[in-house]
Design goal:
This is Antitoxin. The protein is built from 4 helices and no strands. By secondary structure, it is mainly alpha-helical.
């Protein structure tokens, strides 16, 4: 199943920059970068991990900032 969402041009451009390659879908980017949480404990655990980016995600973030 899929849903249609509306993004501003700026939001779309930011999300697109997080793609690890041209074949990765925007859905995959969201699933890779936004943690799934169902309980307060899982939320706490997810927040505690936010500071630890993979090298690949850190490189994408740097590139995104440099391009803006």
């Amino acid at each position: 199943m899929s849903k249609t969402v509306t993004l501003s041009d700026e939001a779309y451009d930011r999300l697109k920059k997080w793609k690890s390659n041209d074949d990765e879908s925007l859905s995959s980017v969201i699933l890779r970068t936004i943690p799934r949480v169902a309980t307060p404990e899982e939320l706490h655990e997810a927040i505690s991990k936010i500071g630890r980016l993979s090298d690949e995600d850190a490189d994408i973030m740097v590139k995104s900032v440099e391009e803006d």
